[in-house]
Each structure stands twice: as C-alpha cells, then as structure tokens.
Amino acid sequence: MISQDYDSIYAVDDLLRKIRIKESQLKIAQESQMLYTSEALNNQILNLRRQLSEAQDPEMQALMSLLDD
Q: Domain segments of the chain: what residues?
C-alpha cells in the first residue's frame, strides 16, 4: 500500500515537473513568436494536465491541497 502511494505521488510529481518545463518552453516560444511551436507546446501541456487529472484520486487531491497550504 505504501509503495503504491509512493508511486502515485511520484507520478503526480513527474507530471507537474513536465508541465512546468513545457510552460517555460511555451513562454520562450511565445516571446520568440514561434507560432507553430507555441501551438504544439500548448497541446502538450493540455495533454499533460489531462493525464494529471486522471492520475489524481480523491486521496491524492486531499494530499495536494495540504501541500498547497
């Protein structure tokens, strides 16, 4: 059970890290007026956020809300 919780937390942390990286890349692409790259990065961010919402169960959401406080 603990291992499963750790794996779930690791998966969420990994997705959050990937989202932050993609958001940084998107900002650079937008500042450089790279329209197609910005669009591709935005789609990737949306896909990662979708995966994040699927990965989070109610217990994980409660844990994440505690970390936000």
A: 13-68
